[in-house]
Amino acid sequence: MAEHQPHRSRLERRRMQLEEQARQEEQARQEEAFSKAYAPDESFSQQSFEKQQEPATYHRYVEEQPRDRKSTSRRSGSGMLKQVAQMIGGAGSRLFANRERSRRPRKAGRSEQSVQQNPDVSSREAHPKKIKKKRRFKRKLLGLFLLLLIAFVLFASQPFTFLLIGSDARPGESLRGSRSDSLSVMQFIPLSRTIQLTSIPRDTYTPISCENGKKDKITHAFAFGGEECTQDAVSGLLDEEIDGKIVISFDSFIGLVDQIGGIDLVSTGTFSEQDASGKANQYSFQKGKEYHMDGAMALAYSRHRKTDNDGARANRQSEVIQAVATHLMKPTGWSKIPAAHTYMKEEMNLDLSVREMATAGLSIALMSERKHYEIEAVSQRLNGIFYDLPNEKALQELRDQLDTTFYGTLKN
User: Where is the composition biased (Polar residues) (predicted)?
Assistant: First the structure.
């Protein structure tokens, strides 16, 4: 056994030298073969070349020498498997690359064909279809909005006349049997951008329908026949049809302003006024100063009459009404419109159609000019009672001022 040890070590060294030499020769052959193999079909010549893993000199030497052939064949077989795997992987990658190259011109051809069929979409700068569709949709939407706006203007363009009846019933008192503390007629004319306000003195001497046509103070019409009788008396006095009305008491007025969260108003006069219970000098106002008024303060502002006249009071009442409408027309007040409308219907006997509400809203939104008129009258004592007798000539001129056309403009 000892005699074979030197022989086996020399054999092993010789084998290693031959393997190293074979690897170097093999590497040189592969480099030369790869440099010549530029076409896909020539790649298979490399496969046959790679199969020659072991030189013939090595095999002849191994066959001549007594050694363990089992271990040698195992090593040579594993090397062959690795080379075959590398060969298959290289061939697969080259095949995949060739397929990708063949696909590219096809895609390019398809894109060119689509451009030829649809020249409008050749580039994003040349009006793509999506942009055209969006523009057409925007134009249609704008056209629809303009049509709706025109329809709303036509719907709300016809003027209407509105009567405000302010009762003198104190807080907690019933409206039945009370008198009208103030009477104002508001005429909304959208196409003329005009709001005309006519104040009627409470002691105006005029026929009362519910008193069989007997002449009396117009304030008594509400005590005898309520709002209907008052409406007829005002309509006969001004020779103007009354389209809608509202009855305002102290309680309902305070409740409405408080429900919408108060109003912002600039005072047009300097004065002090009592509160709803009659307590004097509870509220003070300065001309040109803006106030945020709750219901009680707004009532005191609108009912003051001691330092001026009925005309000035009617004007302040219209300022409060317009402030309420302006507050509800703001985006922050839209949510309060349904509740405010319900409150006025139930507590103030509001008689106003949808069209008339649209007309009033349009007139206010257009920042219409507000004109104020007052019935000229002469105070005269009859049977020991003072009445305000209207000036017939001035009254006829006022009637002409209130005359309008069907299209919503003033005749004069």
Answer: 111-121
Average pLDDT over residues 234-248: 93
Range of the domain at 144: 126-151
Structure tokens at 272: 């002090």
Same domain assignment for residues 142 and 219: no
Mean pLDDT to the nearest integer, 334-341:
87
Per-position DSSP letters for 236-296, written without gaps between them: HHHT----EEEEE-HHHHHHHHHHTT-EEEE-SS-EEE--TT--TT-EEE-TT-EEEE-HH
Q: Are 222 and 164 in contact (CB under 8 A)?
A: no
For 386, the token pair is 């003072």
Half-sphere exposure of 286 (CA within 13 A, CB side): 3
240 has pLDDT over 80:
yes
Residue 242: name the closest of 232, 255, 254 by CA: 232
Exposure class string for 108-123: b at 16+ Cβ within 10 A, else e: eeeeeeeeeeeeeeee
Angstrom distances, CA of residue 233 to CA of 162, 203, 221, 229, 302? 14, 13, 7, 6, 24
Distance CA 246, CA 360 (A): 14
Pairing of β 369-374 and β 194-200: parallel
Q: Give tens-digit pLDDT for 182-219.
A: 899 999 988 888 889 898 988 999 999 998 889 999 99
175 and 312 fall within a common domain: yes
Chain segment 359-378, per-residue pLDDT in tens: 888 887 787 888 888 898 89
The verdict on 190 and 256 lying in the same domain is yes
